[in-house]
Specification:
The protein has five helices and seven strands. By secondary structure, the protein is α+β, with helices and mostly antiparallel strands. Helix 2 runs parallel beside helix 3, helix 2 packs parallel to helix 5 and helix 3 packs parallel to helix 5.
Length: 222
Protein backbone atom coordinates (compact mmCIF):
# COMPACT_ATOMS: atom_id res chain seq x y z
CA UNK A 1 0.00 0.00 0.00
CA UNK A 2 1.04 3.62 -0.56
CA UNK A 3 1.56 5.67 2.60
CA UNK A 4 2.60 9.28 3.31
CA UNK A 5 5.82 9.22 5.33
CA UNK A 6 7.08 11.59 8.04
CA UNK A 7 10.81 11.21 8.79
CA UNK A 8 11.76 12.47 12.27
CA UNK A 9 15.24 13.01 13.67
CA UNK A 10 14.95 11.86 17.28
CA UNK A 11 11.64 10.02 17.51
CA UNK A 12 10.97 6.29 17.23
CA UNK A 13 7.23 5.64 17.27
CA UNK A 14 5.94 2.37 18.74
CA UNK A 15 2.43 0.88 18.54
CA UNK A 16 0.36 2.34 21.37
CA UNK A 17 2.52 5.45 21.71
CA UNK A 18 1.02 8.96 21.53
CA UNK A 19 2.93 11.44 19.37
CA UNK A 20 2.32 15.21 19.53
CA UNK A 21 3.60 17.13 16.50
CA UNK A 22 3.68 20.78 15.48
CA UNK A 23 3.11 20.95 11.72
CA UNK A 24 4.56 24.09 10.12
CA UNK A 25 6.33 23.13 6.86
CA UNK A 26 4.07 23.52 3.82
CA UNK A 27 4.75 20.00 2.55
CA UNK A 28 3.72 18.45 5.86
CA UNK A 29 0.63 20.66 6.09
CA UNK A 30 -0.33 19.22 2.70
CA UNK A 31 0.39 15.68 3.89
CA UNK A 32 -1.54 15.99 7.15
CA UNK A 33 -4.52 17.66 5.43
CA UNK A 34 -4.61 14.73 3.01
CA UNK A 35 -4.52 12.23 5.89
CA UNK A 36 -7.37 14.05 7.63
CA UNK A 37 -9.51 14.36 4.49
CA UNK A 38 -8.95 10.77 3.34
CA UNK A 39 -8.93 9.33 6.89
CA UNK A 40 -5.62 7.54 6.28
CA UNK A 41 -2.57 7.11 8.51
CA UNK A 42 0.90 8.42 7.88
CA UNK A 43 4.10 6.55 8.61
CA UNK A 44 6.76 7.72 11.07
CA UNK A 45 10.37 6.81 10.27
CA UNK A 46 13.50 7.61 12.26
CA UNK A 47 16.03 9.59 10.22
CA UNK A 48 19.27 7.66 9.82
CA UNK A 49 21.18 10.48 8.13
CA UNK A 50 20.32 14.11 7.45
CA UNK A 51 17.84 16.58 8.93
CA UNK A 52 14.06 16.92 9.21
CA UNK A 53 14.07 20.22 7.31
CA UNK A 54 15.09 19.91 3.66
CA UNK A 55 15.22 17.00 1.26
CA UNK A 56 18.44 15.28 2.30
CA UNK A 57 17.11 12.98 5.03
CA UNK A 58 17.74 9.26 4.71
CA UNK A 59 15.23 7.38 6.90
CA UNK A 60 15.31 3.86 8.27
CA UNK A 61 13.17 1.32 6.43
CA UNK A 62 11.07 0.14 9.41
CA UNK A 63 8.57 2.47 11.05
CA UNK A 64 5.13 2.67 12.62
CA UNK A 65 1.86 3.91 11.15
CA UNK A 66 0.27 6.83 12.98
CA UNK A 67 -3.45 7.61 13.16
CA UNK A 68 -4.37 11.25 13.82
CA UNK A 69 -6.56 11.55 16.91
CA UNK A 70 -6.60 15.32 17.52
CA UNK A 71 -6.02 18.46 15.44
CA UNK A 72 -5.72 22.09 16.47
CA UNK A 73 -5.48 24.54 13.58
CA UNK A 74 -4.01 28.03 13.52
CA UNK A 75 -5.03 30.92 11.28
CA UNK A 76 -1.73 30.85 9.39
CA UNK A 77 -2.17 27.19 8.42
CA UNK A 78 0.04 25.64 11.09
CA UNK A 79 -1.35 22.73 13.09
CA UNK A 80 -0.79 20.95 16.36
CA UNK A 81 -1.74 17.29 16.08
CA UNK A 82 -1.68 14.22 18.27
CA UNK A 83 -1.25 10.85 16.57
CA UNK A 84 -1.38 7.30 17.90
CA UNK A 85 1.06 4.62 16.80
CA UNK A 86 -0.85 1.63 15.42
CA UNK A 87 1.18 -1.00 13.53
CA UNK A 88 4.67 -1.52 12.20
CA UNK A 89 5.53 -1.42 8.52
CA UNK A 90 8.53 -1.91 6.28
CA UNK A 91 9.23 0.38 3.32
CA UNK A 92 9.46 -1.38 -0.03
CA UNK A 93 10.14 1.69 -2.20
CA UNK A 94 10.25 5.44 -1.59
CA UNK A 95 8.23 7.82 -3.78
CA UNK A 96 9.60 11.36 -4.21
CA UNK A 97 6.99 12.53 -6.73
CA UNK A 98 5.00 14.59 -4.18
CA UNK A 99 6.04 17.59 -2.12
CA UNK A 100 6.34 15.24 0.86
CA UNK A 101 7.89 11.79 1.06
CA UNK A 102 5.67 8.77 0.53
CA UNK A 103 6.32 5.13 -0.19
CA UNK A 104 5.12 1.67 -0.92
CA UNK A 105 4.99 -0.21 2.38
CA UNK A 106 4.03 -3.62 3.66
CA UNK A 107 2.76 -4.61 7.08
CA UNK A 108 5.49 -5.81 9.47
CA UNK A 109 3.45 -7.84 11.97
CA UNK A 110 4.48 -8.56 15.54
CA UNK A 111 4.67 -12.32 16.04
CA UNK A 112 4.98 -14.90 18.84
CA UNK A 113 3.37 -12.73 21.49
CA UNK A 114 1.54 -15.67 23.03
CA UNK A 115 4.37 -18.21 23.15
CA UNK A 116 5.77 -19.85 26.28
CA UNK A 117 9.05 -18.02 25.73
CA UNK A 118 7.26 -14.67 25.65
CA UNK A 119 5.39 -15.49 28.88
CA UNK A 120 8.62 -16.48 30.61
CA UNK A 121 10.35 -13.28 29.54
CA UNK A 122 7.44 -11.20 30.83
CA UNK A 123 8.27 -12.48 34.33
CA UNK A 124 11.85 -11.23 33.91
CA UNK A 125 10.96 -7.86 32.40
CA UNK A 126 8.23 -6.84 34.86
CA UNK A 127 10.42 -6.48 37.99
CA UNK A 128 13.18 -4.85 35.94
CA UNK A 129 10.96 -2.09 34.54
CA UNK A 130 9.63 -1.40 38.05
CA UNK A 131 13.19 -1.14 39.39
CA UNK A 132 14.20 1.04 36.46
CA UNK A 133 11.39 3.55 37.02
CA UNK A 134 12.18 3.66 40.75
CA UNK A 135 15.83 4.39 39.90
CA UNK A 136 14.84 7.16 37.50
CA UNK A 137 12.61 8.72 40.15
CA UNK A 138 15.42 8.65 42.69
CA UNK A 139 17.99 10.05 40.27
CA UNK A 140 15.74 12.91 39.17
CA UNK A 141 14.24 13.42 42.64
CA UNK A 142 10.77 13.31 41.18
CA UNK A 143 7.75 11.14 41.74
CA UNK A 144 7.53 8.61 38.94
CA UNK A 145 5.18 5.69 39.10
CA UNK A 146 4.05 3.11 36.59
CA UNK A 147 0.40 2.31 36.55
CA UNK A 148 -0.56 -1.33 36.66
CA UNK A 149 1.66 -3.23 34.25
CA UNK A 150 -0.09 -5.17 31.47
CA UNK A 151 -0.11 -8.94 31.60
CA UNK A 152 -0.10 -9.24 27.83
CA UNK A 153 3.43 -9.78 26.49
CA UNK A 154 2.98 -7.64 23.38
CA UNK A 155 1.52 -4.68 25.25
CA UNK A 156 4.24 -4.92 27.91
CA UNK A 157 7.00 -5.12 25.30
CA UNK A 158 5.90 -1.89 23.64
CA UNK A 159 5.24 -0.14 26.96
CA UNK A 160 8.82 -0.87 28.02
CA UNK A 161 10.14 0.28 24.64
CA UNK A 162 8.27 3.58 25.02
CA UNK A 163 9.40 4.05 28.64
CA UNK A 164 13.11 3.39 28.17
CA UNK A 165 15.18 6.60 28.23
CA UNK A 166 17.70 5.44 25.64
CA UNK A 167 19.04 6.71 22.33
CA UNK A 168 16.87 6.71 19.20
CA UNK A 169 19.36 4.26 17.68
CA UNK A 170 18.73 1.77 20.50
CA UNK A 171 14.98 2.27 20.22
CA UNK A 172 15.10 1.68 16.48
CA UNK A 173 16.97 -1.58 17.06
CA UNK A 174 14.09 -2.71 19.29
CA UNK A 175 11.44 -1.67 16.77
CA UNK A 176 13.10 -3.69 14.01
CA UNK A 177 13.17 -6.99 15.92
CA UNK A 178 10.83 -9.58 14.46
CA UNK A 179 8.97 -11.10 17.41
CA UNK A 180 7.95 -10.35 20.98
CA UNK A 181 10.43 -12.81 22.57
CA UNK A 182 13.28 -11.09 20.74
CA UNK A 183 12.00 -7.66 21.81
CA UNK A 184 11.59 -8.69 25.46
CA UNK A 185 15.01 -10.34 25.50
CA UNK A 186 16.60 -7.18 24.13
CA UNK A 187 14.75 -5.13 26.73
CA UNK A 188 16.11 -7.31 29.55
CA UNK A 189 19.60 -6.35 28.37
CA UNK A 190 18.75 -2.66 27.95
CA UNK A 191 17.01 -2.44 31.34
CA UNK A 192 19.94 -4.14 33.08
CA UNK A 193 22.36 -1.71 31.44
CA UNK A 194 20.30 1.36 32.26
CA UNK A 195 19.70 0.26 35.86
CA UNK A 196 23.46 -0.09 36.40
CA UNK A 197 24.11 3.28 34.78
CA UNK A 198 21.42 5.03 36.81
CA UNK A 199 22.57 3.39 40.04
CA UNK A 200 26.12 4.60 39.39
CA UNK A 201 24.80 8.11 38.74
CA UNK A 202 22.87 8.07 42.03
CA UNK A 203 25.86 6.71 43.97
CA UNK A 204 28.16 9.44 42.65
CA UNK A 205 25.76 12.36 43.07
CA UNK A 206 26.90 13.08 46.63
CA UNK A 207 30.56 12.79 45.62
CA UNK A 208 30.09 15.24 42.76
CA UNK A 209 28.24 17.64 45.07
CA UNK A 210 31.08 17.54 47.61
CA UNK A 211 33.66 18.19 44.87
CA UNK A 212 31.78 21.33 43.83
CA UNK A 213 31.52 22.74 47.36
CA UNK A 214 34.02 25.23 48.73
CA UNK A 215 35.25 25.40 52.35
CA UNK A 216 32.35 27.66 53.32
CA UNK A 217 29.74 25.38 51.81
CA UNK A 218 29.37 27.52 48.68
CA UNK A 219 28.63 25.44 45.58
CA UNK A 220 30.92 26.44 42.76
CA UNK A 221 29.25 26.50 39.32
CA UNK A 222 30.31 23.74 36.94
Amino acid sequence: MEMPLFPLKNVVLFPGMMLPLHIFELRYREMINRCIEEKIPFGVLLIEEGQEVGDTAKPHMVGTAARITRVERYEDGRMDIVALGTQRFRVVDFDHSKSYLSGSVRHFPVINGETVQASQLVQVVRPKIIEYVEMLAKASQTRLKLDRLPEDATTLAFLVAISLQISPKDKQSVLELTGIPEILSREVHLLSREILFTKHMIDTQEEVLQMNMGPTGYIFPN
